[in-house]
Amino acid sequence: MSEIRLHDTLSGETRPLVPLDDGAIRIYTCGPTVYGPAHIGNFRSFLFADLLVRYLRWRGHTVMWVMNITDIDDKIIKGAAAAGEAIGELTDRYLARFLEDADTLRMTRPDVLPRATDHIDRIVALIETLLERGHAYRTDDGSIFFRIASWPSYGRLARLDPEQMRVGERVEADEYAKDDVRDFALWKGAKPGEPSWSTSIGEGRPGWHIECSAMSMAHLGPSFDIHTGGIDLIFPHHEDEIAQSEAATGQPFVRTWLHCAHLRSSGSKMAKSTGNIARVAELLDAGVSPRALRYALLAVHYRAGLDHSDESLAAAGAAVTRLDTLVLALESYREDGLDDPGLEAALLGARSAFASALDDDLNISAALAAVFDLVRDLNRRIEARTLSIADATRASDALHDLDRVLGVLPDGSGASLDAELQTMLDERAAARAARDWAASDRLRDALADRGVAVEDTRDGQRWRRIPQTTRG
Ligand SMILES: [Zn+2]
User: Which residue in 104, 133, 327, 357 has the fewest CB atoms around it within 10 Å?
Assistant: First the structure.
């Protein structure tokens, strides 16, 4: 196979991915601020990170994936006050909602989901180091700011000229006095009615940017492989992360920066402030299938803008249906004969084209083109009845193998059965454990009659529903 190449925002180059050490590839993703339900524009960026993680694992790499949860910030404080509830109640509720939506979209669960409020000690320690090294200063209200003038390479990620930088609409308007308009808050001095922590650097709460430096370095070390986020985070958030992390450790912070372009809707960036947002639950209520939504959010290269529309959802739904129909046709294929001499080359060719495309900076469009070339090829072979039953199983296995990266094929693990069917499934598992093959086969047939197909894998039984139209 070829080497994996990724486009690094900081250098502007597409470079081979060389893991920093022999262990896991360490990845950090800026996660949600849990003050309301995430919209699908947020999920586009998270699913891009999911695609990256799944692909690296598919290629045999060990991956350690950390996604932070911002559970303290101005919006959360305002939201909790407006709802008349404790901040922890609000953030717990929206964290649960985020995880539910992420599961619906089959996002791989990150290995660690650190919460900012669990890392106050790490944040304080980092700020202390920045104070000691002269990169931070205190103001009269107990806040602490990062001094951008102390960090000459500030602005490299966003390609800004530090001399030209002035406060503007892209620079966060802090309500705290500071020496230089460019400086950003590491620590916000306590204010009446706001939550605060009593620490060695004073009473207050962390700024947003410092959280990500503290949490990423706490779980991945001072230098790690990949940092991902939406392009709107390049400035100031990621610029600030680099400055404060490298100023504190004296080491390069991140090897490769990956940024996902916006999801657009009605011609402009999907954003809560614009009001053109769509949420996972609303789309499901409107009849969109979770797998089609996942496909729609994944199917365009991460550095290209993606338009969300009824048409793009319908196209995604049609693509998923074509895959489903083929897998079903392969799994119910009954025409036995000799093995198809051309099949192995077709499967290997598709796998290789799929991998080459994703090696090329996760070129998902080309990877999906390889998948649908294979779909056409397999449909031709089914129609011509050139496959053996063993071939059909090989072809289905090959599609499921590619789907370990895509995550769009039906899979029983995400759904649940009614109690009676679940009992039959459990009895069958027990029969197999007791090596009672006759009982196991009888239960498999009984389940098939009820519309549930069971197959045995190394991880135990896997089941899926057999669509009504193709039974019998
Ligand atoms: Zn972040």
Answer: 133
Distance 391 CA to ligand 1 centre (A): 47
Torsion of CA 295, 300, 306, 307, to 10 degrees: -60
The one-digit pLDDT tens for each residue of the chain (472 residues) are 789 999 999 999 999 999 999 889 999 999 999 999 999 999 999 999 999 999 999 999 999 999 999 999 999 999 999 999 999 999 999 999 999 999 999 999 999 999 999 999 999 999 999 999 999 999 999 999 999 999 999 999 999 876 666 444 344 455 556 778 889 999 999 999 899 999 999 999 999 999 999 999 999 999 999 999 999 999 999 999 999 999 999 999 999 999 999 999 988 899 888 888 899 999 999 999 999 999 999 999 999 999 999 999 999 999 999 999 999 999 889 888 899 999 999 999 999 999 999 999 999 999 999 999 999 999 999 999 999 999 999 999 999 999 999 999 986 433 456 677 878 888 898 888 888 999 999 999 988 888 788 887 665 777 776 654 433 3
- How do strand 268-269 and strand 263-265 relate by DSSP bridges? antiparallel
User: What is the strand order of the sheet 202-206 is part of?
Assistant: 136-138, 144-146, 184-189, 202-206, 197-199
Residue 124: both structure tokens together: 């304080």
CA of 316 from ligand 1 middle (Å) equals: 30
Rounded distance from Cα 228 to ligand 1 centre (Å): 9
Residue 461 neighbours by CB under 8 Å, 6+ apart:
425, 428, 429, 432, 454, 455
Give the number of other CB atoms < 10 A from CB of residue 458: 4
Q: How far is the CA of 71 from the centre of ligand 1 (A)?
A: 12
DSSP string, 366-417: HHHHHHHHHHHHHHHHHHTT---HHHHHHHHHHHHHHHHHH--S--GGGS--
Give distance in angstroms: CA of 233 to centre of ligand 1: 7
CA of 244 to the centre of ligand 1 (A): 13
Q: How far apart are CA 455 and CA 391, in angstroms?
A: 17
For ligand 1, the distance from its centroid to the CA atom of residue 237, given in whole angstroms, is 6
Ion ligand 1 — residues with CB under 5 Å? Answer: 30, 212
> How many angstroms separate the CA atoms of 337 and 314, rounded?
38
| 409, amino acid identity | L
Contact 236, 172 (CB under 8 A): yes
Taking the centre of ligand 1 as the mean of its atom positions, its distance from the CA of residue 235, in whole angstroms, is 11
CA 53 / ligand 1 centre spacing (Å): 18
pTM of the model: 0.86
